[in-house]
Amino acid sequence: MGFRSTSAKEEILGRIRNANKLAGVPSEPYPIPRDYRTNRTRSTDELVDLLEDRLVDYKADVHIVKEADLPSTVADLCREHRFSTVGVAEGIDESIYSSVSADVEKDDRSTDPHKLGRFDAIITESHVSSAQTGTIYLDGSATNGRRALTLVPDCHLCIVREESIVYGVPEAIDRLNPEMPITLVSGPSATSDIELSRVEGVHGPRTLIVLIVRK
């Protein structure tokens, strides 16, 4: 069966190649333009506003902060939500969470993922964000955290820097390393049953807090 299928495929492709030769179609593939759907006119302010609008629509809690105010904002949010234990991605700068009153623990990638549930929340940065779709891309690097860290705890505090915000998906994909494990986040985890009853926190954090950092 497999041999016949392969032979049939080769025969069909051979006929197509012969037909192309008779028609004068070049054997080399045509160049594919890749300059579509890119941001040509939107300013940083417009991209930030668009991303915020999309994330709020997805029920994320969004805060626009200055770089200098990031540590105090993180500490205030942890206190407001009464987090007792907070996990942070291993590459996060200590100054970002130094004012947090809760117990803070850097993630050790060797830790059993089943034990990550002890964290009330986790703090990570992000690699790139698409404003058009309201999607945050995590690439599994030291500052973004391993995938399990961003899926098991109930709350995710995600830092998005303004220079990492692009307009559309093609621009976001262009910044990614295809060899890295990519996690896409568009609001808190949520699912609906056949009766459209929304349930949050099934496949990931129930609460997503996004800190968009302006220079």
Automatic annotation (TrEMBL):
Residue stretches making up the LUD domain: 51-213
Protein origin, superkingdom: Bacteria
InterPro entries: FTHF_cligase-like_sf (IPR024185), LUD_dom (IPR003741), NagB/RpiA_transferase-like (IPR037171)
SUPFAM superfamilies to which the protein is assigned, alphabetical: NagB/RpiA/CoA transferase-like (SSF100950)
Pfam families attached to this UniProt entry: LUD_dom (PF02589)
UniProt xrefs under PANTHER family: LACTATE UTILIZATION PROTEIN C
Protein name in the entry: LUD domain-containing protein
Organism field: Corynebacterium pseudokroppenstedtii
